Structures are given as structure tokens and as C-alpha cells.
Amino acid sequence: MSDNTQHAAIDLEWANLLSPQRRTVLRGGGLVAALAASGLAGSVLAQDGAVKRAKDVKPAATGKSPWGEHTDTAPTPRPVSVRPGEETLPSKPRAYTDIESYHAHIYFDEDSYQKAALIRKWAAERFQIELGDWNLEPRGPHVTPSFYFGFTNDLLPVIVPWLQLNSLGLTILIHPNTDDPRADHLYYALWVNRSQPVNGYAMKKPGPGEPRVEQIFVNTRPTVKIETSHA
Ligand code: ZN
Question: What are the start and end residues of every segment in region (Disordered) (predicted)?
Fold first, then answer.
């Protein structure tokens, strides 16, 4: 295969991934020009195969990296798993009755807090739940502002569809409470809309005398009958 045929084949592969509009650009040989115009063509392969930096790119620092000089050949340690018991293929399913209760964490930011306030009000008016405080800063494993409510297992078949239809587009994490908080947040999670990072790696089972999150103390007094299509 000549160099040109090879390039054409690669172009075609890309063209198939891209939109028809871009395909026209590729056919016209305009890809390189488009990249150059966008500034993406700043790095080019030198004769020895290493990437040569464009002149206007801020140069790398001189001196030694604080990470050491041989990080590229360091061994690859296995990180701790978020799976309970570390088993990839357990010999039998886990009993679903290990779930003691659920939490719903509703995430918001400075642009969406009013939506969060509406979901909070609507939920408190309709469900017997344990409604937590506003967390205006990251708290526990939650990396953005949030509030949560806890609920007993019997409400799951109502609260999941209710949150699906009433999320107002916010990101919501629904997690079970078993005896393994790390798995609850990172491995057993159920998301409404897109997911977002959860910093749950350091979570451990609560020690003796520490509060047990799975206990639900109802603190709402519902006053509104939940809406259904058959009223
Ligand atoms: Zn939670």
C-alpha cells in the first residue's frame, strides 16, 4: 500500500465516524487546513517518532519531577476494589433483603438550587421520609452541593418513578444502605439523569457506637396526596 492509499484509508475511517458535513471537508483534503486553523495541529511527529512541540507552547520545566525519575517503569499495583468481598464472580447472588433502606441525594449548583428547593418541598409534602439539611458545600462522598432524603424500602416503587418524572433535570443518586457504604455509593448506585463523581473510596462500615445511616427517622408530615393519572 502506498503512503497515499494508506492516508486515504485512514481518512475514510475517520470520515465514517464524523458527520457528512465534515466528510465533505475531508474529501476536499481540508482536514489538515481545518486542524491548522483550529490550532490543533501544533504538535508534529519528528523524524525519530517523538512529538515535537510547537514553538508557541509553554516549555516543560527543567529539573526533576517530584514523582521520581522512573515512574514509567514502576510496578502496577492493584487498587482496592469497590466490590464487596472483592469477588468478581460470586458463587451466589447477594440477598436483596440485605438492603435496609435507601437514600436519594439530589445534586445542584448555583444555577439550579431553586429546582432542588422545589423537589425538596414536593417530596416533603408527599412522602414520609427523613429529610436532611441543605449541604451547600461538598459533604462526605458528595462532591457538589446536595440534599438528601432517606426512605424505607416499601417506598422504592413509588419514589424511583416519582424522581424520574420530577428530577427537573437534576442529577440524583439513589443508593441502598447495606452493611457496606463504599459499595452502596460506588457499586450499587442507581442514577437519575447523568451520573457525577462520588468520592466514596474512603468509606468504611461504621464502627461500634457510630451512627448507623441505614436507620430512617421520619421527620416529614405529608399533607398532599400524591398525583396519579387516575386521581
Ligand atoms: Zn447517602
Answer: 51-92
